[in-house]
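ARCHIVE CARD
Drawer: 12
Card no.: 0347
Subject: one protein chain, sequence and derived structure
Cross-reference: see card 0346
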Amino acid sequence: MRSLLIRWAIIAVAFAVTAKLLGGMEISGGVWSYIWVSAIFGIVNVFVGTLLRIISLPLTVITLGLFLIVINAILLELTDWLTKDLTIDSFFWTAIWASIIMSITTEVLDYAFRGLGKKR
């Protein structure tokens, strides 16, 4: 349970960093909006993301994994559609760059906090 909450917080921070760096992505509201958007993104990622990754596996292999950026951008757009707290102005540039920035931020934060979710 602890690792799930830490992962949720990491994604919320990744949304905050991405919204700060990109002018076309905005999250309205305070801290709870970041937590809400990260929860919606997590649910979308589990259900729709898994299906998209399975369907696009050949294309992902051909592009050596670069197509996962497009899949994450699609998931961000779907999250934008589901919640009014997240606003992404254009798919091609903003969502693609948001996907890249969120992936890098999430990986860095996962690496920094990798020992917190484990039992001792």
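Annotation on reverse: The helical segments are 2-21, 31-55, 57-62, 67-82, 91-112. Strands lie at 25-27, 86-88.
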